[in-house]
Amino acid sequence: MAVPGRRNGVVDEDDYEEDNALFEEDGVIEFDSDTPPHLRPLATASQLGDVDGLRTALDNLTVGSINDAVEDGDTALHLTCLYGHLPCVRLLLERGAALEVQDEDGAIPLHDACAGGFVEIVQLLINSANDTECVKRMLESVDAEGDTPLHHAARGEHAAVVRLLLASGASPTKRNTYGKAPTELPDPGTEARAILEAAASAHMAMGCQ
User: Fold this and answer.
1) What stretches of residues are ANK repeats (predicted)?
2) What angle do CA 17, 105, 83 make, to 5 degrees?
3) What is the model's pTM?
4) Is position 5 within any domain?
């Protein structure tokens, strides 16, 4: 799982960087992972944001699927969402990448995009859903720690993403495994905190859960 902040808001930067490191020697980039050989071009292009390389990798993908895990349980769509590579995300969706595919920790690509604060990617993912039920499932999807995409956006204090998720129907009061609602994750006084508190107040006033 590549999503930062996986321990309920406590980010271990050293672990994150180590887990997602690329190693380059003599111009050759290799993943420190058990990525299957036939998926390595797909993994490399996805993590680096190389849209031409990604297109070539997809064209040459004769074994396996676009939705196979390529790096630490993440699919190509997870990786491109995590690192904010919008053109690559668009290409993967055009080629049929699944919006609701889960990684080894139960997170979907929307979790990754929200964690990074990539509002254009978040909007693209939501717009790519087939119907309102799909959008609802994505917004309510929880990972191994009970976090929804809104929890990730709130933890990162990504105000624009928080607004977008709330406008799309995300719940500001849903609690994760640790009993934390999205409202409690941003620091006091931040824009994200103010947006979430106002949304939670309106949510409760309407008698919503």
Assistant:
1) 72-104, 105-137, 145-177
2) 40
3) 0.85
4) no
